[in-house]
């Protein structure tokens, strides 16, 4: 079975985190107090931050191994991400946003694939809308479409529901679960919200400030 | 003012200079914003020097660097068969170098202010570096880049000191409008000086109004 193994120390000025867990297909929720290092862990998995030591690998593909001085560029890791803070490009239409993440084909093929993905998440009617004027729930649907458009194996989501009202939150959670099951994705979700854990988690990794303390199915 | 040559020359020189300073300036600004090293700081200090140098001093440097006896000047002459200094091409070079730091300063600030996380998420989506720049960074920095280019144009249009040193003051050949105004004042030709000044002032106002509107619309 596909498995992501994370065993790294990640540091930024004034703070470091030792993250150690593994995750298979399904939703793995990273929970713990603010500032415990959950988002830093996602940054290490995405390749935007180099761990000071350790290994990250997906099955036989090594994303990062500090002993062997290996560090795969973000572009070469098969990832999709939807972060609350770095959501959509407002100067591009929703369709363009999703098409940018499609990795194969010419421009027309990428747009077709993007349209199909938007329709899959129930946002086909938003393709040509003004991105700036989308509601929170609509934005998050488009962001999810963009995250899966490149056929990633790993999905990284940082507080993906925090700006949504209760109804939209339930809808997007359910959509996420469906997509993850359908595509056998390994989803890492950072959240503060216990309701997210209850509704989504196949597996939970618990953080204390600076380290992961336990993981459970 | 009977002879409109200085106005057309000024417009032509400043438009070409703005184009050159825009392309070179935005590229340099991108490098300076992304490449952090002592060398980058040194190069940045050198190319933004024209902001603080008196224009005549800048012109003197350019004259020394590009004059007929300098290696660069001789290289130019071997390519094009004419000297660079005291020609319209010389005026373009002077205006470009004067405008360049204004473009670089504004564009660099705008590029640095683009949220790094948005660029990172584009990389995670699989976009190569040049596409991150084209699709994410430059569009998000467009407002600041536009402001820098407009200021650069105004500076190129209004340049006197560097232009007069590098291109000279040859009526009908290298005499731009600011130089013509100076010439007219020296000759006691008030009508020409007044008309030239009003035209330059009007163009400056139009540029500033356009700039303000662009800012207001995008905010």
What does this structure look like?
By secondary structure, chain A is α/β, with parallel strands linked by helices. Chain A has six helices and eleven strands. In chain A, a hairpin with a 4-residue loop joins strand 5 and strand 6. In chain A, helix 2 (94-101) crosses helix 3 and helix 3 crosses helix 4. The longest helix of chain A is centred in the C-terminal third of the chain and has 18 residues, at 166-183. The radius of gyration of chain A is 17 Å and the shape is globular. The longest helix of chain B has 30 residues, at 5-34.
Summarize the structure.
Chain A is an alpha/beta fold and 217 residues long.
Topology:
The complex is a heterodimer of chains A (217) and B (219).
Chain A: E1 4-12, E2 15-23, E3 26-31, H1 38-46, E4 53-58, E5 61-65, E6 70-71, E7 79-83, H2 94-101, H3 107-120, H4 136-149, E8 154-158, H5 166-183, E9 186-191, H6 194-200, E10 203-208, E11 211-216
Parallel strand pairs in A: 3-9, 3-10, 7-8, 8-9
Antiparallel strand pairs in A: 1-2, 1-4, 4-5, 5-6, 10-11
Chain B: H1 5-34, H2 38-47, H3 55-66, H4 71-80, H5 88-113, H6 116-124, H7 129-140, H8 142-158, H9 161-166, H10 177-186, H11 190-218
Helix pairs in contact in B: 1-5, 1-8, 1-10, 5-8, 6-7, 8-11, 10-11
